[in-house]
Amino acid sequence: EHLANQIAAGEVVERPASVLKELIENAVDAGSTRVDVSAEEGGLNLLRVADDGSGIQPDDMLLAFQRHATSKISSGKDLFQIATLGFRGEALPSIAAVAKVKCVSATDDSGLGRLLEIEGGNMLANRDTNAPKGTEMVVKDLFYNTPARLKYMKTIQTELGHLSDVVYRQALARPDIAFTFSHNGNLLLRTPGNGDLRQVVAAIYGTASAKAMIAVNEESPDYTLIGLTAMPTETRANRNAVTVLVNGRYVRSQAVAQPLLQAYHTLLPLHRYPLTVLDLKMHPTLVDVNVHPAKLEVRFSKENELRAFVESAIKKALSTEAYIPS
Ligand code: ADP
Ligand code: MG
């Protein structure tokens, strides 16, 4: 069990940002309206995620730190219809194997909750405590017991960059959730949580960029594509400018990014990318998200149809703004 956790940890817990991704996904899965994230020293000293979601039942808390104890899959069939972000039940045990973890959680407003402390997979405390509704996860001294892994960490600034990417993507994916993010006590991001994607873009990329974006809103029998994409005059040098979500989950997908760029075709200078946030919604049976442990890769069952849909949706959005004659 211990060894299995350490092995799994190698897959799930590559660096502070991968821990943060799992913690935020859990907060989102718990139906939170508010997620507060803080980090110290690029997340290597401390990562903290506090939410106001469903909380964890006192008797389930220890279970949550055991392998494959996910509450999110109840039958084999569910594997093909995954609506939540996490579904393997591997994240928490993996994290607890390579760090000092404190979890405080309550499932209601009674003020009573449970506190659990685990260090390198060993339970230190499991007792009742005062807690507001929701969950607070604190991960300290990441990789303190795996020095080989610690050696691979880059500078604080690099790790912070990865942490920011994770928070930005989750914030872009869920404009209905109010996110804050601070590092070493400095507030780096605050989103309003009112459902307005343009305001999230403004908080991350600046008001000017947010204003210069075109709404995308397209529906077919199989797909819905909603989001914002930049006017061709507003481009970036980095392909990270393109954020693609599938059913609210951040993915890396050429099947969406390529037709997007194709729609801009002659409008984009070489090696420039339009700042874009697109959420592609479809029935979960049309997409396989269970391809990669980090869950970034997806496979679509009707890829050609999808590509055509994305290209025409973007062309239509651009033509509304008269960039492409319709
Ligand atoms: P998974 O997300 O794949 O189910 P995790 O290891 O990430 O597995 O989490 C294990 C379980 O702990 C979850 O299924 C959930 O029941 C519970 N849990 C973890 N974080 C939270 C949270 N922030 N709020 C409520 N429940 C949580
Ligand atoms: Mg999870």
From TrEMBL:
Domain of life: Bacteria
Cellular compartments per GO CC: mismatch repair complex
Keyword annotations from UniProtKB, A to Z: DNA damage, DNA repair, Endonuclease, Hydrolase, Nuclease
Keyword Hydrolase on entry: yes
Domain DNA mismatch repair protein S5: start-end pairs: 201-319
GO MF: ATP binding; ATP hydrolysis activity; ATP-dependent DNA damage sensor activity; endonuclease activity; mismatched DNA binding
GO biological process: mismatch repair
Main function: This protein is involved in the repair of mismatches in DNA. It is required for dam-dependent methyl-directed DNA mismatch repair. May act as a 'molecular matchmaker', a protein that promotes the formation of a stable complex between two or more DNA-binding proteins in an ATP-dependent manner without itself being part of a final effector complex.
Family note: Belongs to the DNA mismatch repair MutL/HexB family.
Protein's name in the database: DNA mismatch repair protein MutL
Organism lineage: Bacteria, Bacillati, Bacillota, Bacilli, Bacillales
Name of the coding gene: mutL
Included range, full protein: 9 to 334 of 668
